[in-house]
Structure formats: structure tokens, C-alpha cells
Amino acid sequence: MTENNSPRIVIAPDSYKGRATAAQAAAYLGEGVRQVLPHAEITLAPMADGGEGTAASFSGRTITLPTTDAAGRLTEASYVYDATSATAYIDVAAASGLPAVADRPVPLTGDTYGTGVLIADAQTRGARTITLALGGSATIDGGTGILVALGATPLNPRGYAVPKGGGYLSAVASIDTAQLNIPAAASEWVLLCDVRCPATGPRGAAAVFGPQKGAEPEDVEILDRGLSHLCALLDVDPATPGMGAAGGLGIGLTWLSRTLHGDDSHVRLLPGAPVVAASLGLPELTAEADLIVTGEGRLDAQSTQGKVVGTLLDLARPHRVPVAVAAGSVDGPVPEGARVTVLSEDPDDRAQLLDAGRRIAQDYLHTSTVQG
Q1: Does pLDDT of 128 surpass 90?
Q2: Each residue of 174-192: b (16+ CB within 10 Å) or e?
Q3: What does the pLDDT average to over 338-365?
Q4: Are 66 and 75 contacting, i.e. CB atoms less than 8 angstroms apart?
């Protein structure tokens, strides 16, 4: 604690999908904590793990422009551009996300072309680094939609353009780069994963995430076979952790970057939560904190596999800082070092998080008093 016995509390939750954004969740939890600990020094640090909302975790100007969704329909999407670092932060879900096509999923024909439009726009504004948050996509196209948007056209053995979407990947025989947007393609690529699954196989993009994107069992087989073919064609290792994120998006971008630069040194596939945490200064904030408050909609086995909760626990452990987790539900054992508060059943999202913040603060008061 500080000299005036005011606890230093860092509040760094993920979003609660369908309930509150990370920024809203941090504000509501902080408000609840403040009601119990009015003199606490509270720092709000809304977090993300490479899923939806990650771009908003970075500073910069928000750019909004027309593009297409995963089904090819006209839409608008936004990204964040930081001119100081010449970096664009783009959620794949912004243009190519699942909610926009939830009424009519497009597992076989959906593509990431709309995300490619955002990338091309960012390059025209001066972006030299493209940071893509891969979570929440509606597509399993191996990144081929982005390739098409940047002027690289997948062709079948007869030299005709292959139809869009993952259902046709097995027909790709070559990729024509005659019209390639070289400045955009030559960007530094940072791919932030919210999952570490490989591209193919029983833990791959099609098998694990295909059903939630609308794929039937026979579709999963077609998609997995297509991704395997694409990896073999483009000489990309399908077993690479995270290569299955966003429907294998990293496959196409790895090939694209290697084609321009001769190696893979200009494309990085990273777990999203540690990158976001570093950008927010959380390693330093955690070292000085008396309490970390984080949270997510569902606490389960994946929560410690590169997700927000696991990242905060990893940061806090060396400093022996307690970590409180406000969870919508719990499935499985509680991670070591976490004190879990389950959200109430109040239908008002703000009320749920305010109540959780109060209960976390009361628990902290009780624990710190007992421990002296």
C-alpha cells in the first residue's frame, strides 16, 4: 500500500461478450470497488486477448470506412491507426466477424476480403506495421480473401480465379501476383491470436471452430482438407501454434510475407493478451499493485492458455499480488492464485459488475485485515 494506506488496485478485465465491453467492465468494476474502498488508487486498464475489441486497446485515431462483411455484403468497419508508430490495429472481426452473418453463416463461402480492404486503406495512410487481432472471425479461408484484396489471386489448374471461401481451397493450384499491392503486402505483420490451435487436424481451425461458424460435419471435412492443401501448396507448417486462428488466416499472410521478403522474419504470430498487457504497461503496474482485478464471461480451462486471466496471473505471481477474477460462470477448477467472484443473476449488466466490484473489495478488505 501507499504511505496513506490507500491500496493500489489495477482493474484489467476482458470484455463480457453480449454484456459489456472491456472498457465498460473496467469502469463498472472500478465503481463498485470505489464504493467500498473510497481512497483506493484505482487504475483502469481494459484488456483484450486478440479477440474482438483488441484494436481499441491501443492508442491512435479510429478510422471508419466502407468495406464488405464475410458474406460479401457492403458494410462499415473501423480500425485504429497510430501515426506515431505507423501501426494499424485491426480486428479481423470488425469486417469479417461472425455477428454480421449470424443470421446466415457462410462457413464454405465466407472470406476475409473486407479485412483486406482495411489493410490496404491503412497502408495508404502510412502504416508500415499491420497488427491483426484474429479472434471472432466468421471465415475459414486461410487468409485468401485478404490476398485477393491485396491483388494476389488464387487460380485453379486451368488458370481461372477460384471462387471465394474455404470450401474451394482444394482447387487452388497457384496464386497470381501480377496485380499485387506490393507496399501493403510488404508490411510488417503482427498476428495476435486468442487461441493456439494448429491449422488442421482434430484441434484445427475447421474441427474446433467450424461448427460455431455454421459448418456441418461434411463441411468440416471439406474445410480441413482445403486448409491442408493450402498449407502444402504454400509450404506453411500447419502444426504451428496459432496458425488455426481466424480460420487459418496466418497461412496466407505467412506465404505473402515470405514471397516479398524471402523468409518469415516480417510476420509474427503471437498470443494476444501478453502483447496488449505490455502496451498498457501492465507488467510495471502489476509490480506496484496491491490487488489485480480481472475477469471474463466464462472461466474455464482455456482461461490460462494465453487468455487475459492467465496473463494477469502470470504477471502477478512473481510479485505475490492477489488476483481477483469476476466471472460470469466457472467451468472446471479455479486457476491457482485466483480468487473468483461469480457475477450475480441481475439482468442489468452494470448492476452485475458493480456488485462484483463491491464483493471483491470487501473480500480484499477482509483478507488484508486477517493477514495484517
Answers
A1: yes
A2: ebebeebbeebbbbbbbbb
A3: 95
A4: yes
